[in-house]
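In the laboratory, one determines a bound structure by crystallizing the protein with its ligand and collecting diffraction data. In a computational setting the workflow is compressed into a single prediction: the sequence and the ligand go in, and a structural description comes out. We illustrate the idea with zinc ion.
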Amino acid sequence: MFKRHKLWSTVAAAIALTLAVPTAMAETEAPISAEQKQPADTKVAADRYLKEHAKQYQLKADLSDLKYVTTIQTDAGHYVRYQQIVNNAPVFNRQVTVTLDRSFHNPLVISGYEPYTTVQQVSQLLPPGDLKAKALQFVGDQAQGEWAPSSEEYGYTIQKGVATPTYRVVVHSKAPYGAWETYIHAGSGELLRKRNLNQRVNGTGKVFLPNPVESQGSVGNLKDNNDQDSPELTKQLKSVTLQGLDGSGYLRGQYVYINSAAKTYSAANQFNYTRSNDSFEDVMAYYHIDTLQRYLQQLGFKNVNNRAIKVNVNASPDDNSYYQPSTGELTFGTGGVDDAEDAGVIAHEYGHAIQDNQVPGFGDSHEGGSMGEGFGDFLGATYEDATSSTSFGKACVAEWDATSYSSSNPPCLRRLDVNKVYPRDLQNEVHADGEIWSQGLYDMAQAFGRDVATKIIIQAHFSLTPTATFKDGAKAIKQADLQLYGGQHAGDIDRIWKARGIPTS
Ligand SMILES: [Zn+2]
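The predicted complex, in structure-token form:
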């Protein structure tokens, strides 16, 4: 966290706003001569009108802190633009325009002028060489660097009526990906304001929703066949909207940054591939993670893993995928069915990122690790249920991925209804023991609905520690229900966890 230094003197010269008494009001003044329409005349007319109405727009009577910028002449009228200044430096983005019609009648003033009472003095300005690093620190991951050069400008912002020396620094950060405008106090280095300049755009793409087995409602003829296309698999593609893209043509956006997307590019943001194309998995990862983050926000969680998570798709030849806490990145493997062809796997891994974000270091105990796996399976199974057009594969996660290694029907990476009981069925393996935990969570979703259950469960994570136990987790769930719903679901929560052998108090 940035440490605040106070280098500037807070005693500053007071600037009295001497306000002019208008000599004439708009209704009574004589029209400005329409004979001449030169820019100079236009500016004289605009100056005169502003001076006469200075009080109304809270301007200085002599307009001494407005710097003339341009006059634009069109057939339909004239536009004079001014920039607010302090000590001959701009007050960023604070401008005034005067619109005059062709005969200089009916002036219109649009004023962004911001009055102030004092000008703050700074005894020592920040060295310009420090600005880029500071700005990158304020917007995200400094270590990732920039994708385009930064720029900086000295001026002022008005902070609570005080004209404050400020640097405007524009940086192009890689993580989160974007172009950011930051306003940094020129003395203290404090961040005053930041704004993402990137315009968000929506694109389109084709995905499995959530995977081809579940959307078809059976395994049927669906086979990996070494990542080849088949008519049956192509038939399961659904067109979706890809939200929040940054407009670069890559799969980079508000909540997801596809790291392997250099090959996945569309200037028109159209990402329509079949599953044999490696770019298909990039689209899958972008769409499903973005959708999950938006779902969390819709539930009211604005601060849970709310960042553009970097995702490395098809980046490992293993039939394995993982979340890496040390880098905050997700990686999906290509062994068997490509892992990112199944939204159940994608959601499971994103579950680890969510928990690590809520409880840094989560899962530093066997039961904590098992809760992590169980939560991922819960997130995957409920996401599959919510997005599937069939009811196939209830209480089962990653039916398509599992065709590579399971001959059950449906094939499941894991199930959420095998009735394991704590501590009797412990196998001392986090994925297996996670089935104890995932079933409790999944039963909550069956009893209260996905939204209520997810809300309680996410809320409960905030209470946990890296070494939390099943019992800690169940107690936190009961507490979260108390805080969110006044304990409305307490009886069902007790019953559900008792069936898993886990007390809630
Ligand atoms: Zn996992």
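The pocket of zinc ion is lined by residues 348, 352, 373, 376 (CB under 6 Å). Keep in mind that any predicted model is a hypothesis to be tested, not a measurement.
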